[in-house]
Amino acid sequence: MKTKKLGLLTIPIVLAACGGGGGGGGSSTTASTGSGDSTSSSSSSGATTGLTGAQLLAAYTVPTSITADKQTNYATAFSNNDTGVIARCSVAANTSTTVYVTPNAVVYATTAVSDKAQALAADLTEQSIADVKSYFSQSTTTVGFTGTRINVCVDDQLGTSTAMGTGGESGEGSTGVLTLMSIDSPNFSTRYPNATSIYGTLSYVQLFQHELVHVFVDSRLYPFAGGFERWFNEGVAQMVVGNALPAKATVLSELDSADLITASSSVSSTNFNVYDAYQALTQYVTNEGTVPNGVGSILTLINTLKTDAIAACKSSSLGLVPSAAQLVDMPTGYYNSCYVGAGGTDARVTASFDSAWNVVMKDGDGTTPLLLHTADGANSLEATAHNRLAVYLQ
């Protein structure tokens, strides 16, 4: 079973996500057992056996390149880019005027975050952007993922909750924006109770990598961010991070716990115990050794979904005055009638994912479409997922 992984990412981490589309979706992360990788240690037991965030930060040395990126009295306010991302840096009173303007990001911080913690976040953001670009074979010279620096908010109050949409998750990312828990957050040890290094078990860097995959996907999909179905959106992020899957029986149990391959935002959106199954399904679909789609098929799916969504959503703007957001990437004379604002995804975009999938993804022979949903036809991935993974997993 061959999968492409980021070089740093060989240690399991628990990840969970929420959010969705419209002008820009949002996916968030929390590190706690019951949220993904069942091989991780529980953060709900109250026991902390690893190093604290303060200890990890004390051992870290800020690179001179990051130090040079520091700017004080920065005048441009943080923006969540019309996404569903909940970031406290959106409120000026919460936000320091000191930022780190790196080659690919502007890293803001809430006022209680230490300068060194903010610098670390800037460093890990740059490293993780490079990792994601490398994984998807993207140009290293492009600023951010689409030519614009990514807005990053480092928040000392994140990590208080695993509930979606609370603004208390460990991280959340969408089109050109993400917010992440600072390493000096009082919640750090709750989220990473067994941490031994920034790059080690339950590694802090993986929080950045996971969320930046969401930023990459949604930025490429914009203005149809959130267009991926939940299982695939999280599966791609998990696959890129490279977590080791648990035992076959564990993955199949997660898979059988509910219908995960669904467009509805029900159990597959809220159940943080099935992320291994998300990852396994995504690896199965993209793994060149079994189903010959490859990592490149994800990019093709993004492009096809966006094309299909434009066709489904474009409406004549004659006699209307659409907002600037409704005109993004629309043909002249048309506006995006699917635009519903931050955090929403129109049903036509959801349908476009299904239609794009059925065109792009191929079954094991390399030519037959790998149909997505049971309603699409016989031998669909939804209908046969258990049997397929039972053979694929070792």
TrEMBL record:
This is Lipoprotein. The lineage of its organism: Bacteria, Pseudomonadati, Pseudomonadota, Betaproteobacteria, Burkholderiales. It comes from Robbsia betulipollinis. Keywords: Signal. It comes from the Bacteria. Residues 28-47 have a biased composition (Low complexity). Residues 1-16 form the signal peptide. Residues 26-47 are annotated as: Disordered.
